[in-house]
Here is the input.
Amino acid sequence: MLKKITFLFSLMSFVVQLSATEVIDSLERVLVQSEGIDRVNLLCDLCWEYRFVSGDSALRYGSQALELAEAIDYSKGVAQAYNDMGIIHVDRGSYAIALDFFNHSMEIRKMLNDSLGMASLYNKMGIVYQKQGKLKEALENAIQALNMYEALGQELWVGYSLNNIAIINYNMGDLSTSIDYHQRALVFRKKLHDRYGEAGSYGNIANVFLEMGDTSLAISNYQKALQITREIKNDESTAAMLANLGTVYLYLGEHNKALNFLNESLQIRERLKDQKAIASSLLKLGTVNMNLNHIQLAGDLLYRGLRIARSIGVIEEEMQAYKEIARWHAQKRNMDSAFIYMDYYSNTKDSVYEQRLNQQIIDTQAKYETEKKEQSLALLQHENQLVEISLRQRKTDILLLIFIIISLVGAGIFLFYRRVHKQKLALDLAIIRHNEQQIQAVLEGQEGERRRIARELHDGVGQSLSGVKLKWESISGTIKSDTLRENLQSLSDLIDGAATEVRTISHQMLPKELEQFGLVTALESILHIIKDSGGMACTFNYHNMNQRLSQVIELGLFRIAQELINNINKHAEATEVNVQLLKRSKHLVFIVEDNGKGFDYELNKSTGIGLMNIESRVQGLKGILHYESKPRTGTLVTIRIPL
Here is the structure.
């Protein structure tokens, strides 16, 4: 399955026309003659610029900035150094260290009453929690940032905060809420003519559609983002959009298109010397070439990507490299190597914490062994220091033992809580399945009762009325008086009306068109009745509906359509209604749109019986329901049902 494509967050700075190397060279020339506060600020700038070139160099400059700022008591510089180094650790996957640095910076920002700096830190901390999978904490920090930016009137950063909240909801699986926040962010960005942010919103909207399985809308939005990034000459974002499009076409199996996009992305990233992004592009290109059976080239690209990922310490790219190299070896039938690299991938993915803990123990043991050798050599050279060295060795043993015990206890606690978390997830899934079964049982019971009542009306009341009608016609034939026959004709009309009403109710409860001809014909029948009544103009479009769907889906969508159109007819005061039914490879999309007075869904969803019935039926079909409606603007209802 296609990996989720993550667009650039608001940690990125705006584009500078000079290349990264030229900027760094310029800053280093000025740094030689600088001192005091100016030198701290230049060191922080170098820390940021080296982020895209060398993480080690970036941290070295950040440490120098922190040391100098503390020495001259420059609090703002201390906060900035912690902030910049925290970002570098985020890039390297050292999230605990990054949060520690951000918290140090936050303490100083609060002391300085720097609201804008605090909002920025809440934003970054939310991103770190998101990367750790702590989505609740991520959402809390992102909302805190949004509130502060709104209070400060920082509309640009309000847009970025809305964007981040949308991404968190995306990761939580709440795709409808994610789309809503992305649309809100896009409004702010267009208002401020923030072309860079606008491109970001289109990219993220594309990500959501991609998760929904709608690749055509995903590609369309990626292309909008790409057009903007080219116009504003933002090479970093252009490369990202090209990589995203390449990844989508890779997923669709259109490998030549994927190759073109990914090659152009790699060229830009190599020009920018963005090592992390270069590694990502190399790995995707390796996968495409492997699919095209360019085996040797694929191997060269994958191993090159792995070397870069290891050198800069980016865990995500390293894991992806292991996985793809394992597949590459399997394709070459080097099964031993394939198993080895798959084992690397599994260990890195599932046991990052345990590996780091074990590595700490190994490093400590190696250090201890080195110290023992040095102490043994010292014993030979300095016999008079034998007692002192022995005591020092014993102390080291005790400290090492304590450290190992603490490490093992920590690992045990981690594994215990991970198991508890998995059990809780399993219980939640069981509850969800039980609720779905209850909903399905209720709906099946309702439909069974509808069929029974429809048969009773048709076979019982309907037949009785037909018998009365025949008997009445027989009696009326014996009446000689024209006046009496004319007066009694109204009674015959009442019998006809009652029979017609019984047939209509029976047909609505058990539509023959649905059972005999399918969903499309049944929907056409509903709209034909509405149109003939003169209430509304109706249009119906459908695509790829050559074959019938399962009975459960057809009946469920028919009842939903009945409820929606009945609501429009009763309450919307609409003159037009448009219905669309689209069948895709994995989803069925059902859309109902009217031009009526609209309504507030959040206000009415808990009190409207019809709305609750619709939501229950959508849940029973495991679908996604989305309303777009505001007073006096009409209503758009979109339902996605998995096939």
Summary: The domain at 513-642 is CATH 3.30.565.10 (Heat Shock Protein 90). Residues 1-18, 355-368 have pLDDT under 50 and may be disordered. The chain has 25 helices and five strands.
